[in-house]
Amino acid sequence: MSYELYYWPTIQGRGEFVRLALEEAGADYIDVARESEGLAVMIRMMDHVERPPFAPPFLKDGETIIGQTAAILLYLGARHDLAPKDPAGGLWTHQIQLTIADIVAEAHDTHHPVAISLYYEDQKAEALRRAKEFRDNRIPKFLDWFETILARNPTGDGHLVGRTLTYVDLSLFQLVEGLTYAFPKATKRALKDTPRVASLHAAVAKRPRIKTYLASPRRISFNEEGIFRRYPELDR
Amino acid sequence: MSYELYYWPTIQGRGEFVRLALEEAGADYIDVARESEGLAVMIRMMDHVERPPFAPPFLKDGETIIGQTAAILLYLGARHDLAPKDPAGGLWTHQIQLTIADIVAEAHDTHHPVAISLYYEDQKAEALRRAKEFRDNRIPKFLDWFETILARNPTGDGHLVGRTLTYVDLSLFQLVEGLTYAFPKATKRALKDTPRVASLHAAVAKRPRIKTYLASPRRISFNEEGIFRRYPELDR
């Protein structure tokens, strides 16, 4: 049976971390809200199931519904050989994903520092201040942490965990993609100091299934509805 | 062997969710940074281990070091009967914890909407706007979600998951504690519409081990260094 992925149909957003894992795994899945009337199905489901996700994305696998991006990846990683089999390694991989989730939330808040219920234009003054902090302190701090992890990986610096690809390599790729879209100048500067992160990003882009996916219509383009938005005034 | 918990020694913060689980489990643990010179040990450890946590809290269990609050609770829940044994139930419990982590991060950002590197006083204008959104929209939305989960629990509305206590009941207790400290007026209003959440909060406070813990010096008081801060101008 196919997995059913539920996520907003017009953005990469948090759903993209799940899409990348499904694509790399070669898993059969339906991106439900992008099908005809699928969005209505998604909304109805959130309103009626016994274990309702707080927000998309969520994944349906038979009778099991899983919300929260990192929890979905924890589930998929174990099933598709995208995470170490040993419990400590699996938890470490998950811990890295949770930290990626933290910077993704901060990236979102650069353009919505006051309220998701307000337009960007109504919180632009606050956004200018928050984006400066994000560029100057937060992007370097997070990328340095990933660089450190790569450098300390006892089996080599080509992957965050172990010697083969895990879902957090895919997620770090997507994070760098998003940061590069939203903050091209600041991200380019930060990547100069984190060469291992830059190399991993480039290596993931060349993986056959990922390359095919990125060139396909299944990959939605970045846009100013998503988490990573290009507002030139927020980058320097 | 005792668990070693590493967290900032003067605040409840995110470490408190771990402390509550350890206390309810009756687990043997050392709150390392509160011991003499423990803070220096914590900082050194983050700088030198092969798998460095991005930030406290982290838990050391023998050779295993686990960062990220939700990952720590996933680990402890399975070991101390504070989560369901079936994989789907365990993942659902974890998903609830991750959503609690989301509102905790939002609560933090009410007083630090621009930058954690700046004082509250230097981002007060932004804080006033963000706190209004948090009070008016976010607290009710999250508490409604917990209320829905309690109402839909097929085994009764006394616990978020199943018919016995899990770590997310403890975490929801702590969330309500924190919100009540920081936003007493707004939280009181929201709890009127979420009676099951209010009841669960009251029931957790009466559990013998939790009651003992809350009255002990191990429970740090809320203060204006932590995640939940009482700035009267941010509550209405």
Walkthrough of the structure:
2 copies of one chain form a homodimer. In chain A, 55% of the residues lie in helices and 6% in strands. By secondary structure, the first copy, chain A, is of the alpha+beta class. Chain A has 2 domains: 3-79, Glutaredoxin, CATH 3.40.30.10; 87-207, Glutathione S-transferase Yfyf (Class Pi), Chain A, domain 2 (Up-down Bundle). A 4-stranded mixed β-sheet of chain A has the order 2-1-3-4, covered by helices on one side. In chain A, helix 1 (15-25) runs parallel beside helix 3, helix 3 (69-79) packs antiparallel against helix 4 and helix 6 packs across helix 8. Chain A starts with a strand and ends in a 22-residue tail after the last helix. Chain A binds chain B through residues 50-54, 64, 66-68, 70-71, 74-75, 88, 91-92, 94-95, 98-99, 102, 105, 109, 113-115, 117-118, 123, 126, 129-130, 133, 137, 142, 145, 148-149, 152, 154, and chain B through 50-54, 64, 66-68, 70-71, 74-75, 88, 91-92, 94-95, 98-99, 102, 105, 109, 113-115, 117-118, 123, 126, 129-130, 133, 137, 142, 145, 148-149, 152, 154.
Break the fold down into its secondary structure elements and pairings:
2 copies of one chain form a homodimer.
Chain A: E1 3-6, H1 15-25, E2 29-31, H2 38-48, E3 58-61, E4 64-67, H3 69-79, H4 87-111, H5 124-152, H6 167-182, H7 184-192, H8 195-205, H9 208-214
